[in-house]
Amino acid sequence: MPHQLPDDLYPPERLPWIKRLLARLVGRGLTGLGAQHVPSFSQGYSDGYLNGHGEGMNEGYAEGRFDGIEESRQVLLIRDTRPTEHRGPRIDDHLFDDWRLALTPELKKRIKADVALKLPVHAQPSAAQWKMIFSDTPSTYVVAGAGAGKSTSLVLRILMLTHYLGFELNSLTVVTFTRESRKDFINKLIAIMALWGHSMSLKEGRELVRTFHSRILPLVRSLPGFSELRAFENLSNQAATTTLEEGADSNPFDLRINDAQRQQLNRCYHDLYTSNQRFREVMAPLYRHSLQLKELDRDHPDVQKRITVMGLSSTRDEELCDTIEDLWIRAQAWPIKGIEPMRQTVEINGLAFHFHGYIAELDAWVVLGFDPSENQQMKRPGAKLPVWAEWVIKRTLFQAFCRKPVIWLENYDSASRVLQSLAGSAVAGPGFDYKVKGELGAAPLLDAFVTAASFIENLGLDVSAAVAQMSFAANDPDRYFFEALSLFWKAFEAHLLAQSPPVMTYNRMFALFGETSPENLKFVSDELLRPLSHLMIDEFQDVSPQIVSWIRASLREIRSRGPAMHIGRVAQRSSLLCVGDDWQSIYGWRGSSPKFFMEFAKEFSSPATTKVMLSDNFRSHQHIIDAAEHIVRAAPAIAGKKAKAGGVAQELLPVTILDRNDDELTVRLIQHYNDGDSVLLLYRKSSEKANFSEDLQRLVNYDYGLPAESRRFKQLTYHSAKGLQADAVFLLGDCQHLTQSPYKNQVYRMAGLGKDGDADPFDSAQKDEILRLAYVAITRAVRHCYWYIDANGVGAANGSDKAAMPKASDRIAGDKPFFEDLRGQGIKQ
Asked: What top-level class would CATH report for the domain 126-229+506-614?
């Protein structure tokens, strides 16, 4: 029932028919009399209400449902899901199309089976190496620690692309950094390709395996008027060559000035000095700074010793000047053009001394020296000391107490060269050295120009534009150095282009086709650009910002040309695979940076990127690995790095730390050599070779006299040892950051390197780099590593300020099993 009724209103049970008839007759009678029976009325009302309500509900539901369905067919429900703010389509700024290599599971299985059949057991790739070989994404970066077996994996990657996928060799380029690594890789590639039935010639190998330099050179030579262009870095006095092998083996960060290069530098300097007044003006304070007598602290022992005879020296100084001046006149070295002979008295600490002359252009006074060619026993009449000793006393006193600009001409030859340069008549160049703040030593001025310009350009900056953003104190001579550099470098580049055939620096070539000038790539043919389509780069942690800019610009140009560039070829589109180890980035002092490898996915935008970690070390045992990693772990690194020994199990020998003792080192080294071990002796400075003992030098000469394949001893700098290994490695000297470089800090910030807010980003990077250098040196060892360190550190002989600078040995932990620190304990045989 739809509603609950009182009990008396529920209908009674049905009556028999006789009683129903009687009730009907009685009811009609009562109706006629107008009588009413309330219960019967209520019951009837109830029956009628219930029947009518039920029928009405049914009929209404049916009609309403029908009407609702009909109306719903005529009304649309509109939902507005559009964003409230207008947004256009996103920009596709990827360097690559969104594509994948056609590597099916069946093909991978087949390749693995072939490799298992053709290569020996020890050369079989690990799971991580197979991930590198089979990476099918447009971009891939492989974090390969020391001894990770990356070269074999890279060769198998090339084999997979060419033999199994049909890629053409001239669509690929493999980049290595050094002559030796290039040679070794080519030999390994030829040998493995032969196992698969491909007879690759040495020429084909050299076309495929390149340095960055040998890839950029043909691009520039393809431009009108530059078909015979030569690289400044490859100039020599021999007959010029225009083959593509020119510069093929050159290191991107190595520039040693030879005679042919210096001749071009000197010619440009001479022309600029005679033609540009401002250049002459900024050169004057550089001359004066470089030539003037360097100050000496008054507390210096030499000063304290000689100050006691200062009064006597003053009374005899004029006679000393006469004696020395007579010697210069007899040698026809005095007077000198550009110097006014002017005997001038100057008060030094209250006593009278004398100058010999004055250079108006430099506003500096001149004192003549005692030439070493003269008789060292010569004495003035009545004098107890030789002339040279009196002259040394005077020089010390001037260094400590004279505050006027003084140029001390040491000998006849140097004076002649300096003053010829001052007059602008010397073809040999400026004729003096200069030390930029932050550099370890002075260098000939033009060499210093080349070094600074190369560093700035390696960072992807223009020299003149960078100099314009620098700032120095008013009295800082570096202010004049960099203005002179800006003027000189612009003139030098024009001078090189004016040669026949034209000459250009490699940095200038990379800049021509970098991201600041991408339009120049439009002039490069498909044929020349195609080898850059599929790039594989080794040692990527040492790449410079300049080269990164060129790589990115080239990849963008290849993508922009689209499928038309690859018509009729199997190798389509483009890809980039980079192998490196940020812990082995050790060329920041020349302009490289591990940033581009550490932030690879960000720096090389791609629809998909594969990251591979090669953690197995097939060279060293675990103690060598752990010791090296303990030192370098304080430097920023790619997350998740931890190497493990993956080769044959070896005895775990700790890295032995000893006090510097050259005799003990020699004995231990010769013992390892006589035991049949290969040996590496690594040092921080090449000058260490001059200190080798006679026994060690005899070993060097003996080993060098053997056939190349039988030699077991090499001696190199820490930096030169990359890629090498030996059973026993001897490290001579610490890795220490010794200087601060104001100008490099400034250009580092301009290049966007370093952490935000770091006032000295270059110096901070160098403090990390010394740890990485120690890591590289230690990981050359297969079994034994001995590290000989000066008792008081690198700075012991260079002043307490340098002794306080950070050094790699600070990270040595004597409580770790992988170190055996024997310093201060004497010799342990």
From this structure: alpha beta
